[in-house]
Automatic annotation (TrEMBL):
Organism: Chryseobacterium defluvii
Domain Secretion system C-terminal sorting per the UniProt entry, residue ranges: 161-222
Taxonomic path: Bacteria, Pseudomonadati, Bacteroidota, Flavobacteriia, Flavobacteriales
The protein, known as: Putative secreted protein (Por secretion system target)
Keyword Signal in annotation: yes
Pfam family, one: Por_Secre_tail
Domain of life (superkingdom): Bacteria
Keyword DNA damage assigned: no
Signal peptide: 1-17
Keywords assigned: Signal
InterPro entries named in the record: Secre_tail
Amino acid sequence: MKSLYLLCLAFGSVISAQTITFKGCYNIFDNQTYTFTKTGVDPHGKNIYMTTPIDGQSCSGLGSCEFKLQWNNTLTRWEFLADEGYGTFTSPSLVYYNSTGNNAALNPPSNTVGTWVENTTFTQQAGGCGGNLTAANSTMTGDVHTTTLAISEAVKRKIQIFPNPVSDFITISGIDNGRLIQIYNISGQLALSEVFEQKVNVSQLSSGMYVLKIIMKDSETYEFKFVKK
């Protein structure tokens, strides 16, 4: 982004396992798609996604666009940020924020989870983005969360994993339409991925904290933290 007014939004179809694409904010950025790629993990275990600077890609004539999706632990919210110029994020501009989208998750929420609120203090300088993100005015898919079900809600619905801490096998109860199981370490790296079974062998994992992600046949996801002895 080479101008203070540069804001672009476009999260769309997944390019790879750790990619987010976005399309939106048509008032400012026209009908364009922007790709975010995972660039690292913050000290709180949250994944960080950035667009690759594209010199010369039009943002409705405002310059090239560089953006970042990251967790703000002080304000306990996910943020969509625009660079202050030339691809640097020392003092970025806030475009959207989401304080209600399953904040226990390692990845940012989609545009249908919680509310991605437009920061009009910034966007109105360039004509506005048309309001908060919704499925009607944007697409945001890929490595994002698509369910509002948090861990506490899962417990209420009788979905449980045990024992915790665990040495060898984790048992999952309360699910009859699971499709896939993924286990991530505290750095957000995928440690295990396999077809859903009610018993999961974790004996080969190193000791430490992990997140077990259950992906359902209807694409809903549930996440649980556990400790490997």
